[in-house]
Specification:
GO biological process, one term: mitochondrial respiratory chain complex IV assembly
Pfam families: HIG_1_N (PF04588)
Structural class: mainly alpha
GO cellular component, one term: mitochondrion
Keywords: Membrane, Transmembrane, Transmembrane helix
Main location: mitochondrion
Strand content: under 5%
Mean pLDDT: 81
Length: about 80
């Protein structure tokens, strides 16, 4: 089980590296969805379209979760001095 200090460090890292986190989530979901789609008997174009749509949906949900977490936990926001 993860202790609270490591979980807080993870939350701060995700908050400070949003683009890396979102890109990794999207890429992982795209690969997983493509693997699933290739088990179905549909044309290649539909496999690509379905994989992209599912990945984008979950990625938008992840962005919302990060925003919600920052709104609820002010310690996740970067300090003004770190932005410069």
């Amino acid at each position: 089980m993860i202790d609270s200090e490591k979980f807080h460090e993870w939350k701060v890292w995700v908050s400070q590296n949003k683009l890396t986190t979102i890109g990794s989530v999207w890429l992982g979901l795209m690969a997983t969805n493509l693997a699933y789609q290739f088990t179905r008997p549909v044309p290649l174009q539909l496999k690509l379209i379905h994989s992209r749509v599912y990945s984008q949906f979950v990625t938008v949900a992840a962005v919302g979760c990060i925003g919600l977490a920052e709104a609820l936990d002010p310690s996740m926001k970067r300090k003004k001095e770190q932005d410069f």
